[in-house]
Design brief:
With 155 residues, the chain is mainly alpha-helical. 47% of the residues lie in helices and 0% in strands.
Length: 155
């Protein structure tokens, strides 16, 4: 490759970039109002949202139970660690595309909060039965048979 070939490639690159529809924005700026992210599924773009924008909404009871069961499974198999399988994420993703686009962000947030809440309750339960236990450290999982879902150990 000669220097002339490299120069031609650079000029073509600049021409291609100048045809880009999206205007160049300063780093960290939000896209213009009405911009649709072509890489994000409908109803899933969270650009510009704050944590206060997410809301808990009613979700399918079977999936809510599935989130709690996944948290229990992670506690039994991986001692509170996620195990790296993404079971909860896969279940949430499958559900989100069955509901209207307007509800997707909040439904995903709600299901994630259900899973995290149950995981915290399980952690508290195990810590109450095994003093000094830390997430990821093995313990006798038979104590989980005493756990009652939905009951907060701190209450």
């Amino acid at each position: 490759m000669t220097i002339n070939d490299i120069a031609k490639m650079m000029m073509n690159r600049e021409r291609f970039q100048s045809k880009n529809v999206m205007p160049k924005l300063p780093n960290g700026s939000l896209p213009p109002k009405g911009h649709v992210n072509p890489y994000c599924p409908d109803g899933m773009d969270i650009t510009g949202m704050k944590s206060s924008d997410f809301k808990i909404i009613p979700v399918d009871k079977n999936l809510e139970q599935q989130m709690k069961d996944i948290a229990m499974d992670h506690m039994r198999k991986y001692y509170g660690m996620s195990g790296g399988h993404g079971d909860a994420a896969e279940a949430i993703k499958a559900y989100l595309f069955k509901i209207p686009a307007a509800d997707r962000i909040n439904a995903g947030w709600t299901l994630q909060q259900i899973h995290l809440s149950e995981a915290r309750k399980l952690n508290d339960f195990v810590k109450s039965r095994v003093p000094g236990w830390e997430v990821g450290r093995p313990f006798d999982t038979s104590i989980l048979d005493e756990y009652k879902q939905g009951i907060d150990i701190k209450a």
